[in-house]
Give the backbone structure.
Amino acid sequence: MSWLVYLFFLHLITLYNSYVAEYTSAYPETGSDFGILPDRSNRVEDIYLRFYNGNSATEYVDIPLSQASQILDTKGFNKNNPTVLYFHGFIETAQQESVQVVANAYLEAKPDTNVVLLDWSNMSHGSYLVNAVGNTKKVGITTAEHLKTLLDSGLLLDKLHLIGHSLGSHVAGYTARELKNKYNKIIKRVTALDPAFPAFYPDGVVMEHINEKDAEFVDVIHTDAGGYGAPVRTGTVDFWPNGGKSVQPGCPRFAPIPLTDDNLCSHWRSWRFYAESVRNPEAFPASPASSYQKFRENPTPEVGMIYMGINCDTSARGSYYLTTNSKPPFGKGVDGLYPKGKKNVVKNSK
């Protein structure tokens, strides 16, 4: 993506932000079209932890992040169990589909996991560049401070998994980085679901993006690379389903209005794929390759295969490719390693 296109892309986001803010203020009853805008001020004091303490995402307890230690005494929370902390994205709220889908996947398929949302919605709204982007670091630093308290109180560091979508990926990155650099506590795994591109790449020009040094293992799923998502490798392992770019199979080819469901379809595939992997850990085999073209030409893609998603091999390194279905279930199993069809590969190799 050229700098001219990049700047134009940022300009479109800024214009659309203004439209959303004005429209939902004038017509609050239509707020559900964009997600319910938080009725809070833009303060770190208004960040919440939402602990899902039932069988679905409709059952939860909200705890101010500043009182994070309360979660350890909340019914249903077991500090000895694995804990997943999910970070939502730009202009998202706790009611967003992405949050609900990922939370429900864990609650139903991994009931012994503590599932927690970092609700930073009061700071993820407003202008993308002026407000939300700058807040990723503030939120990450504050979250790390309170996670350190939880860890000192018995939460198991080895069983803590941070997962972020889009802008939330970078909040997770800042959180892990702060824990590592300031408190000498290294997160075992951070998963980034199509980490946001604008203002984070190239690294350090505006903000620092999530990277492989933030945790012992950082896995990234790219589904809209160069659009809303990161255009380059950014983790220990990077997965590129269907090449990692828009348009993902099943998404509209023409969706010019920024931040609409159709326009975000490819970007959202990242959390849809990950949630499906929670329910079916072997749904997404992926093959190592230096490019999507090399992957497509590989007659033996099962060599070196690992799984994308929850069961990712943490000893793996580099880029991995696969193909998916255009609708749920997205995972094709081993067939996803053969974009031209397994029979054709076998026939041509004889």
Helices lie at 3-26, 97-109, 121-124, 128-152, 167-183, 261-279, 292-297, 342-349. The chain is about 35% helix and 15% strand. The domain at 3-349 is CATH 3.40.50.1820 (Rossmann fold). The mean pLDDT is 89.
